[in-house]
Amino acid sequence: MTLPLEIRLIIYYRIIRLCPRGHTLLELWHPIPPVSRPCLFRILSRTMRPRGSDADAPREERCDDPCLLSPNRPFCGLPTSLLVCSRQIYEEARSIPFINNEFVFVGWFSSGLSIAIALTGSLTEWQRSFFRFARLEISVKCLGGSEPQQWMILCKLWSQGLRGLRLTIRVKDGVWQPVISFAGLDSSVDEEPMDVFDNTKSFPMWIQDGLLQLQHLKWLEVELEVVDWDDDKKIRWCAALEEMLNSHRDMASGHRVSVNPVERDVSPPRKMI
After folding, report:
1. How many CA atoms lie within 13 A of 189 on its CB side?
2. 158, 134 in Cβ contact below 8 A?
3. Are 70 and 54 in contact (CB under 8 A)?
4. Per-residue pLDDT of the chain in tens (273 residues, 90 and over written 9)
5. Does residue 5 lie in a domain region?
6. Would residue 55 count as lying in a domain?
7. Which one of 132, 165, 197, 205 has the fewest CB atoms closer than 10 angstroms to its CB?
8. What DSSP letter does each residue of 167-186 carry, written as one string?
9. Is residue 258 in some structural domain?
10. Hey, is 57 helix, strand or coil?
């Protein structure tokens, strides 16, 4: 405790990295969701504007690729033993697990959207204010309709803290149904959330009352699981979304949202030398 605060914070951060919480069975016969490690992503196009590295994370957490969020951020683990050492350490270190972790919400027995609301809603206000990075898997049906209430509730919960979001949008009928083609959607209500190409119309509600409420969002990565869309259309879709998100922002402040189209990198990991 005689060390300067800056050095103590580095020590706290490294302690938390050395003691991650592993995934465990919730109950007998209740399987673990199929997410055991961070998924690596790669950008679909190198022609989009680079956005600079992640300033919120420590140096070892920053991504080498300036167009992507860091793939090395801790993954859903919130070790808490450090926080019960003393009141002073608690006050100094309590924000670190929220700032440096990536919270991942996948569709399993329920949608990733409902799980995200349940967890984020249970946090206190100060915890939500330090909630920086999330990955969410969501069906396009959760964004459509006249009132996508759950999505807007989640964006309100994330509005003060979230900086980076990895968003997987799947065109399918439900949690258990396979991905279908965009042409196979039943109605225009389901197609409406994906219509971002015509900027003369009003914004889709999931953007107007959802994404635009994320006041501090800087980086958005979008994985579009639409079987009848090629890479070029996905790139154009993300570019149109980026234009929408930045159309009402104060350009003088330099606060822009960078939207990158990504896909999962299924190549084998490189060996460390």
Report:
1. 10
2. yes
3. yes
4. 899 999 999 999 888 877 766 655 555 555 555 554 556 778 886 444 444 444 444 444 444 455 678 777 765 566 778 889 899 999 999 998 888 888 888 876 667 888 899 989 999 999 999 999 999 988 887 887 655 788 999 999 999 899 999 999 887 654 445 555 555 555 555 667 777 777 666 788 888 888 989 989 999 999 988 877 888 988 998 998 998 888 877 654 557 899 999 888 766 555 444
5. no
6. yes
7. 197
8. EEEE-BSSSSSPB--GGG-S
9. yes
10. coil
Containing structural domain, residue 114:
43-76+101-264
Classify burial at 59, counting beta carbons within 10 Å of its beta carbon; exposed 0-12, middle 13-18, buried 19 or more: exposed
Block residue for tokens 């996948």: 106
Q: How far is Cα 161 from Cα 225, in angstroms, rounded to an integer?
A: 27
Which residue reads 């969020």 in tokens?
69
Residue type, 6: E
The C-alpha atoms of residue 198 and residue 202 are separated, in whole angstroms, by: 9
Q: Is the CB of residue 190 less than 8 Å from the CB of residue 140?
A: yes
Residue 226 pairs in a beta bridge with: none
Is the residue at 4 inside a domain? no
Nearest Cα to Cα of residue 197 among 161, 155, 162, 233: 233
DSSP H stretches of helix in 94-230: 96-100, 112-122, 125-129, 149-158, 188-191, 205-208
As a whole number of angstroms, the distance between CA 250 and CA 246 comes to 8
Task: Count up the domains in the chain and report the number.
Answer: 1
Place of tokens 């959802």: 210
Question: Can you say how many angstroms the Cα of residue 159 is from the centroid of all Cα atoms in its chain?
Answer: 13
